[in-house]
Target: prephenate dehydrogenase
Amino acid sequence: MGAVIYDRVALIGLGLIAGSMGLRMRADGLAGEVVGHARTARTREVALQRGLVDRVCDTAAEAVEGADLVVLCVPVGAMDAVAREIAPHLASGATVSDVGSVKRDVITAVGPHLPDGVHFVPAHPIAGTEHSGPESGFPELFEGRWCLLTPLSDGPEVERLARLWNALGSHVDVMEPDHHDLVLAVTSHAPHLIAYTMVGVADDLRRVTDSEVIKYSAAGFRDFTRIAASDPVMWRDVFLNNKDATLEILGRFTEELFALQRAIRTGDGKMLEDYFTRTRAIRRGILDAGQDVDVPDFGRAVLRKGTAG
Amino acid sequence: MGAVIYDRVALIGLGLIAGSMGLRMRADGLAGEVVGHARTARTREVALQRGLVDRVCDTAAEAVEGADLVVLCVPVGAMDAVAREIAPHLASGATVSDVGSVKRDVITAVGPHLPDGVHFVPAHPIAGTEHSGPESGFPELFEGRWCLLTPLSDGPEVERLARLWNALGSHVDVMEPDHHDLVLAVTSHAPHLIAYTMVGVADDLRRVTDSEVIKYSAAGFRDFTRIAASDPVMWRDVFLNNKDATLEILGRFTEELFALQRAIRTGDGKMLEDYFTRTRAIRRGILDAGQDVDVPDFGRAVLRKGTAG
Ligand SMILES: NC(=O)c1ccc[n+]([C@@H]2O[C@H](COP(=O)([O-])OP(=O)(O)OC[C@H]3O[C@@H](n4cnc5c(N)ncnc54)[C@H](OP(=O)(O)O)[C@@H]3O)[C@@H](O)[C@H]2O)c1
Ligand SMILES: NC(=O)c1ccc[n+]([C@@H]2O[C@H](COP(=O)([O-])OP(=O)(O)OC[C@H]3O[C@@H](n4cnc5c(N)ncnc54)[C@H](OP(=O)(O)O)[C@@H]3O)[C@@H](O)[C@H]2O)c1
Model:
């Protein structure tokens, strides 16, 4: 049990991220009360059943009343409308945050609606799975992962939000919004678009190869399909709202891909081997940074025995 | 304990695949004796220490003497030289197989060297990890995965090899070599090149973003780095020996990627959402086919607790 950090937290949107936050806050007593709102009645019901929140409200406006922390956990493209709706109902002195995967456009969408006396501290937990919806959250999601804050100014409300994310299990860093968007374009947004594309190509080819693409799905492709199973609306919004950085990285990607394709075509084995040797080193760095585990085949063999028979 | 399927198996190359075969064959008594050869003395020593084989030989020629099954477990580009070396030493009636990730070029490289009275049954176990070398094998590697045979003719030697792969834990299918190479270009070879490329782009950008690309490594990229940590020599050989199919698939990939980039640039949210919805369905297919497990974040949270503290 940690100490209570906020007296009342309102989660707007009750999917993977909000659900994981709510479960952990309630388990560890980080909030006096956790109130939630989601668009559909079904999501609100599941959220109550699973105990993601103490209480649900039919509107976002109701949910934020009296809350000292409001966290927007909806797709990036829905932030504008939600901010507009809640603005008149926010308690004076409240902190508004979000968990959107893009920061510059969310700041532009949300910031102007918020009244004076309300503190806006945008955040992005670098933690997720390919699952979404109110069934998908779990309290350990943020354990050992980073949460990036992109505050517009310093202040005690930034410290306090950082304390919450620490209590949720995360390391916290502060970053400029534009820099955040560039780094994430590299580490997350471009890789997702690439995975979606490759799976799309395979889907077209199924007419040629029947179900073989699925049946003989090997390591590379199998991982791509998992990435490409992520929520379509969330990712549509990420790309539309981090357009410049994503297109910039994809441009560089295509350039490099063409260079490697040329090496294959001309039989330049040395270029290929050197390139692959260089990329291998990066993996070492990620393992050393503790952002992944290194067991054969990700322990799938073990897991399959343990969970799927 | 299964019944002995071959009296003496010779494994040429003692890395991930051969090591996993040897451990399983010895554990389950599938071979009277397992003999091995690898290029370097160090690999041969580790192989003996880990019990991958019963006995090692200093040359491939020695290792194949008296063997009724010889399996070539070296990189695809090394198959030609190995076949040339062993050919005069093969026992009459022996079966020669391989585990190369490419089939047409291996058949072209190996087939012509083999004497009459020796049966060539090419094979490819669709199972692997990003690890390589004699330390990396484990007996469950092939469990529940497919092994594709691309035999040049029917016969009891094909049945017998299929029995061995079944005993190693695999499902077995027979396929045309060219078709194999196309399917694998989609499910494995193109995805690997794409992952290598994306990690290479990120590596270039590290000068811009310092170690942030590693530190904040998110789901998409983290998976790419694992794929791009695979053995450089093995993959160089795969691309050089499955050139046409790989380039064909990469061509289609680039076309699709450009279409998605255009949708991002023009803000065509409907196109993006529809595309991502379509690719999501493929994941379902793979889970249904039993070729992956579906636990949050691949059970990394569980594994981290269990293995890495
Ligand atoms: N998933 C990840 O890997 C990840 C990681 C870090 C950050 N994020 C960010 O976190 C946010 C939420 O993602 P998530 O994965 O938790 O999503 P999710 O599981 O799909 O949940 C989204 C929630 O938002 C609600 N919602 C959707 N559209 C709405 C709208 N137009 N107005 C009001 N509510 C709406 C949904 O309500 P209904 O269920 O009632 O429709 C649902 O409760 C996104 O901004 C995303 O970029 C995601
Ligand atoms: N890894 C996978 O995911 C996977 C999956 C299915 C099929 N395959 C195929 O299986 C084969 C072996 O892959 P692997 O992952 O087991 O590789 P690995 O772990 O790197 O082992 C390769 C072995 O081949 C030996 N070798 C390398 N070059 C040689 C040469 N020029 N002449 C003689 N021996 C040589 C090495 O000996 P030293 O250690 O002494 O150098 C080593 O014992 C490849 O054809 C690959 O395409 C791999």
Observations:
- The beta strands of chain A are 6-12, 31-37, 55-56, 69-72, 95-98, 119-120, 123-125, 146-149, 171-174.
- The CA atoms of residues 30 and 233 of chain A lie 30 Å apart.
- The longest strand of chain A covers residues 6-12.
